[in-house]
Amino acid sequence: MTTHTPPIKNSEKETSRIETFSDGVFAIAITLLILELIQFLYSQSNDGLLKLLVSHWQSYIAFAIGFFTLLVCWINHHLIFNYINRTDSNLMWVNGFVLLVVTFTPFPTAVLAQYISKEPNLALGIFGVNYFLMALAAYNITAYTYNKFLITEEGRKIYYRFKLLYRWTAVYTFINMFLCFFSVIVPIILNCVMFAAMAFPKETSMFLFRKKFDKSKK
What we know:
Blueprint: H1 16-32, H2 34-39, H3 49-55, H4 57-81, H5 89-104, H6 106-115, H7 120-147, H8 156-179, H9 185-198, H10 201-208, H11 210-217
């Protein structure tokens, strides 16, 4: 059985300020998503409130997608920082790339809301770029912290699984990003599958790479 690393007390960690700042950025980015919903209330239209609300169904879907995208991203960010116990100046920049993608997310979400019914392939493609950047950012930070030994020694084995998971997720989202320009249904299905898997990153990584590590024990 895999030995799990016990949570590290805040007093023992060097990453507390990075985590606090990151959590603040995530919170702001999620808050910005609601602006897309508020915006159409100020549109110059003589339609009644009910008709106005119903006619902007795309905005509700895009808001839900954007919200849960950032939530899943935060879940993964929180998970890996449970294992990172040291920092250096480069880690701040690597984590900064993660936050850059997080703050960018409200834009492709707004594009998705406005153009999913008019230009679905391009709208999904732009949002697909965002998913790819998120996966790339996740792989970058796990690869960097793993290679630089910034994580707990007892957590390296399970952390390596996270690294593999994000590497393959980057490949997966890169391919799916291009599929968006040729199909609508297929990329949506593939994104839903990825979304479900990344919502539980620890369980997914242990399931996908169980055989790989079982063989290494023999």
